[in-house]
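Quiz preparation item.
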């Protein structure tokens, strides 16, 4: 079981959170952790890439200016790294391939004092807090539960095909079922878990960002 005391402030950083997601076969972008104040000479990732400062105190990295997107070559990467290193000198950095997706969703879990862990699915990205386009179920969901959640939100339009954009319903269902299993196995002390965005391509779903907060 995950323990609050094992993580500063009870917060898993993005690298730690994604490692746990991968344990449950939730896909994340290809990436590498950079520790210290220098980039490795040999980077095997494909451009464009994303560079992020990671740490338990950076739950909202975009608001903190801790993310640089669409880095297209080594010169841009060197410049981006120098910028973030100056701004966040005590942090590690996560370098990942940038997933080119069709739709951004949010998939998460919160611990409710009455109902226990509740899973949420809906419109994601930076607009998730503006548009209340989400559906909820208690954890231990079935494939039919997830399909219903999809159709209760605007994601259903994209499953059917909307303005030339079509997403794979199975990739959403598989990811949500895996998250439900993670919570059943590890979730005793998980207060909240957010995957935002969960980027959907025509065939897959990728957890582009992840946050896990533990309770005492």
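Solution:
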């Amino acid at each position: 079981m995950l323990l609050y005391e094992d993580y500063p402030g009870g917060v898993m950083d993005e690298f730690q959170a994604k490692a746990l997601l991968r344990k449950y076969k939730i896909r994340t972008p290809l990436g590498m952790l950079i520790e210290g104040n220098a980039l490795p000479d040999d980077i095997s990732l494909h451009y464009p890439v994303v560079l992020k400062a990671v740490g338990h105190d950076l739950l909202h990295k975009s608001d903190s200016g801790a993310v640089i997107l669409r880095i297209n070559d080594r010169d841009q990467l060197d410049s981006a790294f120098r910028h973030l290193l100056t701004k966040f000198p005590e942090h590690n950095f996560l370098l990942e391939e940038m997933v080119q997706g069709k739709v951004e969703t949010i998939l998460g879990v919160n611990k409710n004092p009455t109902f226990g862990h509740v899973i949420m699915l809906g419109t994601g990205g930076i607009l998730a807090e503006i548009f209340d386009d989400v559906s909820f179920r208690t954890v231990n969901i079935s494939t039919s539960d997830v399909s219903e959640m999809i159709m209760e939100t605007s994601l259903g339009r994209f499953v059917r095909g909307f303005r030339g954009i079509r997403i794979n319903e199975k990739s959403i269902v598989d990811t949500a079922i895996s998250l439900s299993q993670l919570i059943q196995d590890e979730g005793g002390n998980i207060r909240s878990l957010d995957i935002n965005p969960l980027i959907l391509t025509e065939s897959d779903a990728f957890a582009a960002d992840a946050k896990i907060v533990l309770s005492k």
